[in-house]
Amino acid sequence: LFSCGTSKEGDSYIVEWNEAEGAVKRTYQGFRKRSMGVVQFDTTKNRFLAAGDEFLIKFWDMDNVNLLTTTDADGGLP
Asked: Which InterPro entries would you find in this protein's record (predicted)?
């Protein structure tokens, strides 16, 4: 289970939850401090996580909180 949002300080985040414990399992790194819009995300085959941020599509291996790679969205994302 994943959720995304903005902290009280304005920082964007995506977290993975441990449903059995009701606790955060992972917090993914690589977001801009203050996102210009709502961060949208999707998972693919429980292997990769993708999110739009800073006019980029950002990718993570779901087993690692560090940003894997990015691709330019040619200004199509906030």
From this structure: Topless_fam, WD40_repeat_dom_sf
Give which of 17, 9, 6 is closest to 53, Cα–Cα: 6
Per CATH, domain 2-72 is 2.10.260: no
Q: Are 17 and 23 in contact (CB under 8 A)?
A: yes
Secondary structure (H, E, C), 27-56 = EECCCCCCCCCCCEEEEECCCEEEEEECCE
pLDDT, one tens digit per residue, over 14-50 is 899 999 999 999 988 887 665 555 566 777 777 888 8
Domain layout of the chain by residue ranges: 2-72
